[in-house]
Amino acid sequence: MKVIQDIDELRQELAAYDSIGFVPTMGFLHEGHGSLLEQARRENEIVVLSIFVNPTQFGPNEDLERYPRDEQRDQQLARAAGVDYVFYPTNETMYPLDMARVTVRTGDDVLCGASRPGHFDGVLTVVSKLLNIVHPTRAYFGLKDAQQLALIEGYVADYFVPVEIKRCPIIREADGLAKSSRNVYLSEQERSQAPRLQQALQQANALLEAGTAVEEVIERTKDALRLEGTALDYVEAVDYPTLGPVTSETKTILLAVAVQFESARLIDNLLYTRGA
User: Hey, which end of the chain has fewer CB within 10 Å, N or C?
Assistant: First the structure.
């Protein structure tokens, strides 16, 4: 495994390969990232992992400075997962002039976009840069960040980017909590409450299968997520992957939730396909 910081060096290394699997991350790797790397390993000649805590996707009152970082541990996990190259750019490398940003035109005013203005502009900006640097055959993203994934798929389609975006399932703890680097922020009490997100979504899935109206499902999910010491950010249902309103023509519904604990904001979701 080779660790590289320089863009030209990475491009020279990758030029010899026909099939490149790419997993972009912000580091502090966990089993969710590991599952993406394992799939990339199976499907490509080589695997490239990027680790970069992207400043442009953090708001002024968010956790950029305290976002968990552990370079040595990340490299150990990457090596164990069979990664060939780790790209570790600096802020100066990724934003040498900082003159241009990708702007999301639609789909960023719901779910996380409503409470994190500008967040997805930052996400698509850095993803655009990384895809232009690595030129992967396939890039792997988890469905835990389903809105992000939909917007990346839309960006790739709109800008004719020659990469296959691979949707990968959510990886969970034994009690159902979605794996996340931010889970380390949770207190013992909060950690005991956190599986309620998945439990509420399982209840919602059963309601949808029983034919319950989406509006009622949303209200019952909100009731299930009014947890002591937390603030309910949102419970929303949108068409997937357009992120538009659910209509009678909607085939797949994304029901997504976000709960603000004292030191961490947790998200989770389910995809429900009508008639499946």
Answer: C
CB atoms within 10 A of CB 45: 13
- CA 192, chain centre distance (Å): 23
- State the catalytic residues: 33
CA distance 139 to 133: 13
Round to whole Å and give the CA distance between 72 and 258: 31
- The sheet with strand 231-239 has its strands ordered as 231-239, 252-260, 265-273
Residue 196: per-residue pLDDT: 98
Are the beta carbons of 205 and 270 closer than 8 angstroms?
yes
Residue 16 near residue 135, CB atoms below 8 Å: no
Helices (H) and strands (E) in the chain, counts: 10, 9
Q: What does the radius of gyration of the chain's CA atoms come to, in whole angstroms?
A: 19
What is the mean pLDDT of each successive set of 10 residues along the chain, which is 276 residues long? 98 97 97 96 98 95 91 95 97 95 91 93 98 98 97 97 98 96 95 98 98 98 96 97 97 98 95 91
Contact 220, 203 (CB under 8 A): yes
What are the phi and psi torsion angles at 265 (to 5°)? -105, 115
Supply 38's token pair: 């394992």
DSSP 1: -
